[in-house]
Specification:
The complex is a heterodimer.
Chain A: E1 6-14, E2 20-29, E3 34-38, H1 45-52, E4 60-65, E5 68-69, H2 75-81, E6 82-85, H3 89-92, H4 98-108, H5 113-126, H6 142-154, E7 160-164, H7 172-184, E8 188-192, H8 196-202, E9 205-210, E10 213-219, H9 220-224, H10 227-232, H11 243-246
Parallel strand pairs in A: 3-8, 3-9, 6-7, 7-8
Antiparallel strand pairs in A: 1-2, 1-4, 4-5, 9-10
Helix pairs in contact in A: 4-5, 4-6, 5-6
Chain B: H1 16-19, H2 22-38, H3 44-61, H4 65-71, H5 76-88, E1 93-96, E2 99-102, H6 103-129, H7 132-141, H8 146-175, H9 186-213
Antiparallel strand pairs in B: 1-2
Classes of the chains: A alpha/beta, B mainly alpha.
């Protein structure tokens, strides 16, 4: 198979205060995949995300991005390749205008002049926000700010788009518009979310992170219909939503691992919450 | 929330004053304020000329005078001080409307009031006719150190975010039956201020992470 965009092996991490957040995480994402990263609050999802572009340094194990080792020398390149869209767009949009903000990443990569303008316009067009380039971000609606945040990352032409809770605080129409945009993009996606119907809609494959380790990795449909797995890891479908009524999305993705779902609840004692 | 309201000091328009390059306006404002401050306060006629200049610029800018007048409340503390001056200053006394006041105090009050008002009015006119980010670009063209411009840029960007946060915290307090009426309530306000500081600090950290994630190395792109 091709070189994985993300190749995380045995990643463990403890915060400086001693709190261990990750216990040996393995995760592979291949080009063109859309993968959802599911898990209850406090499972270590955000900690994992911050390892993907080298903001946090692995305590043990390794992270490779498109075959690149996570070293100081590769850091700038890796940060271009892994585009993280953070949860609060106000954290991500810090420049005076939408256009300047989208230009921030590419100009850090050394782009100038017409090439930079073209990159900015292209990224804003991909999220349908091109006519807002001169507006200050705080004048936009929340849904628009989220779309601009996606554009700021697309402008760096990343190998993989990592979205942290993309649907948080979005109204249903903005949520659907974002789904349309994500579907239209020709880019690998890793999406951290609690929004399980959204995961089913957009991501053929899901990975469940619980208490700092990967406890399941497989077709989203299979995971969401595995009641026992769901209950064991505090994952709940919204009331009235049953994946069986929507049916298995086509085409079905290949399963990971020799025996399909990996369930490691037995290997580690539960934390008793 | 967040959409559709401009900065509170800016008045949208297309007059020649609005269109003038921001760095020229900053230099003009600075020169004007220096001139006003340097004018001896006994030259009463000169202040009439200064006022005429400001009023002429406001006239050309088409910013409604009432718009600027309302925003002149920032001057109130100085006005109060100026009004007290004739009563507390020393020196020979005279009578005005049957009240004994200090003569140098009266002159000092006049000077403070005239110079302060002209300065505030001129600054408000600049703020009303210049978008914040144009102003920053202007300061950059005037070779203000990069770091200072960055800091001001972040201030402009996050002012609304932080005020909204403050507003939300106030609404949340009042929804639980609290309103600050007397000094015994001040500790609550102090804790709220502390919480706001922590939140803003943490937001600063998150913004920094977001900047690093997009390849920030300490220099803002131009």
């Amino acid at each position: 198979m091709s070189t994985p965009v993300l190749d995380v092996r045995g990643l463990a991490y403890a915060y400086p205060d001693g709190h261990q957040a990750l216990y040996g995480v393995d995760l592979h994402v291949h080009p063109g995949e859309r993968v959802a990263l599911l898990g209850p609050n406090g499972a270590g999802k955000t900690t994992l995300v911050l390892h993907l572009n080298g903001i946090l340094e692995a305590g043990a194990g390794s992270v490779r991005v498109s075959g690149l080792e996570m070293t100081k020398r590769n850091l700038a390149d890796i940060r271009r390749r892994v585009g993280i869209v953070f949860q609060d767009p106000d954290d991500q949009l810090f420049m005076g205008t939408v256009g300047a903000d989208v230009a921030f990443g590419p100009s850090n990569l050394g782009l100038r002049g017409a090439a930079l303008d073209a990159r900015v316009t292209a990224a804003l067009e991909q999220v349908g926000m091109a006519e807002y380039a001169d507006r200050p971000p705080h004048h936009l609606s929340f849904g628009q700010r989220r779309r601009v945040a996606v554009a700021t990352v697309l402008a760096m032409e990343p190998d993989i788009l990592v979205l942290d809770e993309p649907t948080a605080n979005l109204d249903p129409a903005s949520r659907r518009e974002l789904a349309d945009i994500l579907r239209s993009l020709d880019v690998t996606v890793l999406m951290v979310t609690h929004d399980l119907p959204y995961a089913l809609e957009l991501c053929p494959r899901s990975v469940v992170l619980s208490d700092g380790s990967v406890v399941a990795d497989g077709a989203t449909y299979d995971l969401l219909t595995d009641t026992e797995l769901m209950r064991a890891h505090r994952l709940e479908l919204p009331w009235g939503f049953d994946p069986r009524t929507t049916g298995r999305p086509e085409p079905a993705p290949p399963r990971r691992g020799p025996d399909g779902l990996v369930d490691s609840t037995a290997t580690r004692p539960s934390q008793g919450d | 929330m967040g959409a559709g309201h401009g900065h509170k000091l800016h008045f949208h328009g297309h007059s020649p004053v609005h269109r003038a390059p921001a760095h020229l306006k900053v230099v003009a404002l600075l020169a004007f304020v220096v001139l006003v401050v340097a004018t001896p306060r006994e030259w009463f006629w000169a202040f009439g000329v200064h006022l005429a200049v400001v009023l002429a610029v406001i006239g050309v800018s088409r910013v409604p005078p009432s718009y600027l007048l309302k925003r002149m409340v920032v001057e109130v503390p100085f006005v109060v001080f100026a009004l007290l001056l004739p009563f507390v200053a020393h020196g020979p006394h005279t009578e005005v409307l049957g009240v004994t006041v200090s003569e140098p105090g009266l002159l000092g009050a006049w000077g403070l009031l005239a110079k302060g008002t002209l300065g505030v009015l001129a600054s408000l006119t600049l703020a009303a006719t210049t978008e914040p980010h144009d102003l920053l670009a202007g300061l950059e063209r005037l070779r203000l150190p990069d770091l200072l411009v960055q800091i001001m840029g972040f201030m402009v960007r996050y002012l609304d975010v932080v005020t909204t946060e403050l507003q939300r915290m106030r609404v949340a307090r009042e929804s639980r039956g609290f309103s600050a009426r007397n000094p015994t309530h001040w500790p609550v306000l102090a804790r709220a201020a502390g919480a706001l500081f922590i939140r803003s600090y943490e937001r600063g950290e998150r913004v920094h992470l977001a900047m690093l994630s997009r390849g920030y190395t300490g220099r803002m792109p131009r």
